[in-house]
Design brief:
The protein has 138 residues and is mostly helical. It contains 5 helices and 2 strands.
């Protein structure tokens, strides 16, 4: 399902131009993503980029080697298994928000830690997510 998205943040900042995105998420999944991004002060396009890189927007994505699953490729060693797609998004974005706080707002460090567990200094993954996020900007 493709959902047309109008950024809900305009209510707080009416002078900005409305954002429109086309993403293959259900309405519930999108609502969860936007709410979790707002709570964690994360640009929704970064969340879209992360999901694009991790699972190519496939709720049923499974890494056979690591067991990572869902939109955000959550590792079952650290996160509950069997989460709904919406809860997978919520948990993944909350984890990214945790990493952002841990690394004092450094997005590249936080994305690296999201992927590797800590900031390794290698920005390859972060650059992939940021590049994917740019494709969702108007």
């Amino acid at each position: 399902t493709v959902v047309l998205i109008l950024d809900a943040a305009e209510a707080a900042q009416p002078q900005q131009v409305k954002q429109t995105w086309y993403v293959p998420l259900t309405g519930e999944e999108l609502d969860v993503l936007l709410e979790t991004c707002e709570a964690g002060c994360i640009d929704p396009t970064i969340a879209f980029g992360l999901i694009q890189v991790e699972s190519n927007f496939r709720a049923d994505a499974l890494n056979e080697r690591s067991g990572c699953y869902g939109y955000c490729q959550l590792n079952p060693q650290y996160f509950p298994t069997g989460l709904s797609p919406a809860d997978n998004i919520r948990t993944g974005i909350e984890y990214l928000a945790y990493q952002l706080e841990r690394y004092d707002g450094d997005l590249e460090a936080a994305l690296t830690a999201y992927n590797a567990g800590y900031d390794t200094g290698d920005r390859t993954y972060a650059e992939q997510v940021i590049a994917a996020a740019a494709t969702f900007r108007g």
